[in-house]
Amino acid sequence: MAKKRKIIFAYRAHQSQMGSTVMRVHQLSEMLRTWQGDEFEVETVGIPRKRFHRRHRAFSEYAKDAIVVGLKFAISDMDPESVSLLRENARALCLDHVDSVPTEDTLPLYDVHIMASHEGRKKMERRLKASGAPYSAVMHVTHHADPRLPSSKPRSDDRFSICYLGNPKNMVEASEIVEVLPYMEKGFFFCAKLLAHYPAHYGVRTRSHSREVSKPFTKGFTAAAMNANIIVDRSTDDAHFYLGSDYPFLLPDNHPNTVLAGLEHMRLSYGGAEWKHGLDIMKSVRHLSSPRHIISELVMALDVAEAISALR
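The structure corresponding to this sequence follows.
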């Protein structure tokens, strides 16, 4: 039997319970164990804060012959000597950006830059080309819906309802028809139990983040996992990529009047041909954000990272 390849998902130890760490380290590593456990030996390691140089060095030594996937700034937080040792010891280095923007000087360090959105992938490809980094590639690994979501079946409810899951400060407020779940007060687990009651999800956000930042289409993946339609505008990262121009609830912009009209159209369409067409599209979104599909992308990224690392 061939020796398993060692994979280490590294994250900031003091951020172990943050959403991106939970999903792109703990959950993604578990998916890899489930789907490719016969090929990979999978670990997760928390990297301590900047002042713990000895522990940084110990990690760099421990990571010998491992493919290391660092989340956001976990590796760049390490002291320069430990980073150099990690680069020397590791079989390959990957950076999972999610929605972060690394500094220019750190780009050449990594064999593969993993992006959770297609918009982010395009931006990073432009940055790498401009930087002239000779041994780095950009790969896309889809973000997933939280596996802790309850199972959901197609609904036969005659009543239209729509919910928003997230921080209310980030949503465009256009109508009282949207029920804002108490995510900030009650947390994810409480709200997740409620999602099965809503055939529609609201995903129209304000444009508060930097143009350099790209967000994964997580709200769309969540809606797809719950067999629900989503209303969202075209400026949302990756919305058009996954939904396409003929998705009936893709808005041209996030102006409140546009959103209000879109919500009314969605309400009137409930249960009809347009609604069912939307659900067919969401079914394809569910496939493209499934664990099987995501792990196939991740394994390809790891393979490319190894190949590039061998050229250094």
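The chain has a mean pLDDT of 94.
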